[in-house]
Request: fold
Amino acid sequence: MFFLYNISIFLYTLGIKVFSIVNEKARLWVNGRKDIFAQMEEALKGEHEKKKIAWFHCASLGEFEQGRPVIEAFRKQMPDHRIFLTFFSPSGYEIRKNYSGADYIFYLPPDLPGRAVKFVRILSPDIVFFIKYEYWYNYLSILKRRGIPTYMVSAIFRSSQPFFQWYGFWFRKQLNNLTWFFVQDEDSAKLLNAIGIGQVSVSGDTRFDRVSVIAQQNGSVEFIEGFCKNSMIFLCGSTWPDDEKILLPFIRENKARLKFIIAPHEVNKERIEGLMSLLGSDGLRYSDMKERVNPEASILVIDSIGLLASLYRYAFLAFVGGGFGVGIHNILEPAAFGVPVIFGPNYGRFREARELINKGGAVSINGIENLRSTFTRLIEIPDERDRCSGICLKYVASHKGATEHILKQIKISEEKA
Reply:
């Protein structure tokens, strides 16, 4: 199995290199890893004599936002450490490569034995944090052999994962390489305990801490307030074309009484141009607002990454995309601002979605008729929107504290070491 794993990583890496000839994202993935070891050695020259190294790894932007509260709290609590942050995906690295909360930011080299050994040797971390999902066998094995404490933060497990299947012996071995698991819920802890993994505690989800911080910030977004002024805003976040098949007819029906902000999940040129062609003259790109302010525009398309979480502060209602595809995106961002949330039917894997639906702060729809009726209820029934808003705010507030739990245990472990 070890041989098959390494072959699959090699073929994956080779495939991305070939694909990079025609794909910009793949090209960033490849170019970002060129000469990475030389760059690391130059950046870290003499640093190990000055301070310890804390390595945080995030797959992409979503995992970074989930891990960010821990990074920033760790920096305050452990000022004797340098923060070394890595990303697997360009959608994380390219957006956060100038993040001031880390001392060094790099791509993670592919998990091949030689590269993993060289990376860990150069970095020589004193403590390691992987966020949520990342189980790179060679890296974790090397860290275990070197006795480096390695933590999985905001992990979540489901019985359908390979770790818990009859054929999952080799996958379960990976879990034994972790020093400790901070999991989001009791179900995850029980699944781990059932296969003999005892180094686990239920800390909750650090996303609640992150979205709470964003909601408390005075984070107005340039040019947006002028567009939103004196209007009710229906914000459609992280949308895919399948979501927009439902949304666009609704938007056309209501553009005279509402303004809409659409933030697609992907913002490449082809995706944005395709969406703009569907919207016609009613649409305005965010990137055009500097040169062209159109007071008549009723639909604003966000063609930049990194703004969405702060935009929810302007919303009267929010639709979060992904639910007509493989699964919904982050509904906690609008909920933290007290914005009632609507999403498609594929939400079953997300506990926060199930719980907010049960409490009455969120609604799942399966088509435009559901969307129309939900909108009518929240607009026309007195205080209904405010009731849903209060539920969302209370729900987020009641689930904060994961970061504090994690850092408290880390501090105890560091003091014992």
The chain is about 45% helix and 15% strand. The longest helix spans residues 2-19. The mean pLDDT is 92. The first strand starts at residue 52 and ends at 58.
